[in-house]
Each structure stands twice: as C-alpha cells, then as structure tokens.
Amino acid sequence: MTATEVARQMALRHHTSKEATKALAEATVAGLILSSYCKSGEKVNLNIQGSGWCKQAIIDANADAEVRGYIVERPEIDIHLARNIGPWGIGLLSVLRTKTEESQPYIGTVPLLTGHLAKDLTFYWLQSEQVQSAVGIEVFMNGDEIVLAEGFLIQALPGATDEDIALIEDHLKKIHTLKLEAEQRKTPLNLISYILDNQSFSVLDETNISFKCPCSIERVKRSLCLIGSEELRSMLDEGKDVEILCDFCSEKYIFKIEMIAELIKTNET
Ligand SMILES: [Zn+2]
Q1: How far is ligand 1, taken at its centre, from the CA of residue 210, in Å?
Q2: Which residues surround ligand 1, an ion (CB under 5 A)?
Q3: What is the C-alpha end-to-end distance of the chain, expressed in Å?
Q4: What gap in Å lies between CA 16 and CA 71, rounded to an integer?
Q5: How far is the CA of 109 from the centre of ligand 1 (A)?
Q6: What distance lies between CA 203 and its chain's CA centroid?
Q7: Are 89 and 122 in contact (CB under 8 A)?
Q8: pLDDT per residue as tens digits for the range 46-69
Q9: In whole angstroms, what is the distance from residue 92 CA to residue 115 CA?
Q10: 220 CA distance to ligand 1 middle (Å)
C-alpha cells in the first residue's frame, strides 16, 4: 500500500516538524493497514501512546481507505530515548474497531515494546487476531519532504505450504537492508512484486486511499450546544469570537459572537 500523497497532505495540514511528519506518516500507514481488514461500513481508530518524543497519535480509517489523524509531540525531547528505542518509546497501542454505530466496538490493546510500529503491529495481529503476520512500514524522507510512505501486511492463508512461507520470510529479512531501492517502487504493485520476490500473484481488489475528515460547521455547532448554556454564556461575556480547531484536520471554525448568542437562544428553546 502506498500512502505518500495522503501523508504529505496531513503533514501540510498540521504543520508538523520533520520528525513528527515521519512518525505521523508511519502511524497513517499503520491505520490504513488495519483498515484493510474492515468490511463495508466498518472503521478503525488507532491510538498510539508512547514515552518517546511522540506522545500520542490518533488515526481514524475506514473500509473505503479514507483516513484522518494527528500527532502530539512531547515538549521535552529526550534525544537519548528517541535514538535508542524509536520515536514512540514504550507505551500502548490500541485499536478500536467499530462495525456499525449501534454495535459495541471491539478494542484490542498491546504494549508498545520496540518503539517501532511495524514490529509492534506484527505482535498485535498475533495477539488480537491470532494470525501469524508480517507487517512492514517504511517512510522515506528527503529533508522535510516525504518521498514515499508505504506499508504491507502479509498473512499466510490456509493452504500455504511451509516452503512458501519460508521463501517469503527469507526475502522479508533481506528487504530491511534494501531501503534504497524504495525510490524505484512507484506503485503498490511494484512493492508486492518486490516483497514476493517476483513470484506471480493475482490482484483481487484495489482501493484508492484518500484523506477525509467529516467535521463541518454543523457538527461543531452541535458539540458547542452540548457544552451547555452556562459555558456558552461565559464565552459571550468574554465578547470575543470563538475559534474552534478540528484536531484531526486542523480546519478552523470561527464563531462570531452573534452566532454564540444565537446558539444560547436555540439551546434554551
Ligand atoms: Zn476535521
């Protein structure tokens, strides 16, 4: 899967630092890999909380490969920690899977042990889904720019022979030392062919990846109403326009003071 464009868009929206751009791109690829398991109407929420310089990342992705997300950096950077155990450090990786609005979501949580998302996600698949898997996530940067953000999830289906699995495992071990070849892999098909060591394969389905945040002025209005008239009244008393930022897409919603007065009126009728 290649998510370069989406990862670039997210970095632009959130004005992330170079390190956060890379970490957010990795988390986005991870969220999209998880969403590949969603059936129509389902969505996943990936929540990574770490002790490294990336404090938290939240990614929402759905069955249509629509994704949004953000990252929170820790203000005090512990360089020593970041260099030794990856950007995330130790912590927790939680996956909340929602089937429909009415049904109970399923939550799977695994410890973040290695500080590297791909390794910890491999553990997640084994723990939560009881499936032997290999997960790869690579984000290549040139200065502050993302050159390529890609990832893969390989799982052995019933019927795969030990030889087939051993062949791919052997090749996967080599891939980690061949980072530079990434620039020649422009499409996900190139990546699959590369991972499978040029063995033949069939493509069963393809999905376009896109950035999408469902926030809107109407939704923000509804959540403002929920905070109650008292809180709204104190905003009104301050006499300033109210600015509300969507964490997921950095879209700014500005409520003129007259709009706040209007909301109080609607709230009380
Ligand atoms: Zn938004």
Answers
A1: 14
A2: 213, 215, 246, 248-249, 251
A3: 51
A4: 8
A5: 26
A6: 24
A7: no
A8: 999 988 778 899 999 999 999 999
A9: 10
A10: 10
* pTM tops 0.85: yes
4-211: which CATH number, 2.40.30.10, 3.55.30.10, 3.20.20.480, 3.65.10.10?
Answer: 3.55.30.10
CA of 249 to the centre of ligand 1 (A): 4
The closest of 128, 132, 139, 122 to 25, measured between CA atoms, is: 139
Residue 70: helix, strand or coil by DSSP? strand
- Residue 62 pairs with which residues in a beta bridge? 43
- 248 CA to centre of ligand 1 in angstroms: 5
C-alpha of residue 246 to centroid of ligand 1, in Å: 5
Domain with CATH 3.90.1280.10 in the chain: 217-268
pLDDT of residue 125 exceeding 60, the answer is yes
pLDDT tens, 75-101? 765 555 555 566 787 889 999 999 877
Which structure tokens are listed for 109?
């949580």
Please list, in sequence order, all residues whose beta carbon lies within 8 angstroms of the beta carbon of residue 211, skipping any fewer than 6 positions away.
Answer: 6, 9, 10, 66, 67, 68, 249
Asked whether the beta carbons of 217 and 253 are under 8 A apart, the reply is yes
Given a contact cutoff of 8 angstroms between Cβ atoms, the answer to whether 229 and 201 are in contact is no
**Is the CB of residue 146 less than 8 Å from the CB of residue 12?**
no
CATH code given to domain 217-268? 3.90.1280.10
Distance in Å, CA 128 to ligand 1 centroid: 30
